[in-house]
Amino acid sequence: MAALNLLGLAKAVPLNPPPSPPSLPPALPPPPPQAGCADDPEFRDPNGYSCSDSTCVLYPGITLAELDSILESCPVSCGSCSPPPSPPSPPLAPGGYVSVVSENELRSLIEGAAADISISLPPSAHFELSSQISCASSIKVTIASSGEGATLDGQGGTGLFHLEGGCSLTLRGLNLVNGRAVSGGVVSKGDGSTSANGGVVHANGAGDVEIIGSTVTGC
């Protein structure tokens, strides 16, 4: 009888249910429609469908003109909103120069350039560099200022420019100050040399380097 009682108790012990499967993360909401691009809430196609119900394709019963009307009235539902406009290009200074007023603009223009570029810096502007501005493609970069000249300042912690890949650089009418170099003087030019050489320019496999009408101090 004791054995029967134990067996009965064993049968009465409930089994633990299997663990629930992990829940899926919620779906990301669709991106908001572009500003100024919206479906016409009053639109109905020839069959009475609204924008959200329309297939946005040519099907029996509608004409090409009616499809054009659907696409024009339902740009969000039909996925035909135009991409946002590109930001305007920096203004051109006289003589085809691009005028920039910040270190970030200067760096972005040079490091992203795919063709020759001429850059104008405002007189008396002061550009503090935290690292060398690099040019690594076979283009010609000209940076110029007028009057008392803009200042490019390495702050004693970095050289001003690093050139490679055939890049040529002309610096005109600038104040070039506090460029740090381990060795190599103002311009260090030679394949394989360390990028820490050259207080103003380190040129490794680069093109011509010209410094015209500029002052160099502490480099």
Total DSSP helices: 3
Helix content: 10-25%
Question: Could you state the order of secondary-structure elements as H and E?
Answer: HHEEHEEEEEEEEEEEE
**Overall outline:** elongated
Task: Give a brief outline of the structure.
By secondary structure, the chain is α/β, with parallel strands linked by helices. The chain has helices at residues 2-12, 64-73, 103-111; strands at residues 92-93, 97-99, 117-120, 126-128, 133-135, 140-144, 151-153, 161-164, 168-172, 175-177, 187-189, 201-204, 209-212, 215-217.
Task: Tell me about this structure.
It is a single chain. This protein is of the alpha/beta class and 219 residues long. The protein folds into two domains: 37-80, no CATH class; 95-217, no CATH class. The chain has three helices and 14 strands. It has helices at 2-12, 64-73, 103-111; strands at residues 92-93, 97-99, 117-120, 126-128, 133-135, 140-144, 151-153, 161-164, 168-172, 175-177, 187-189, 201-204, 209-212, 215-217. The chain has a six-stranded mixed beta sheet, covered by helices on one side.
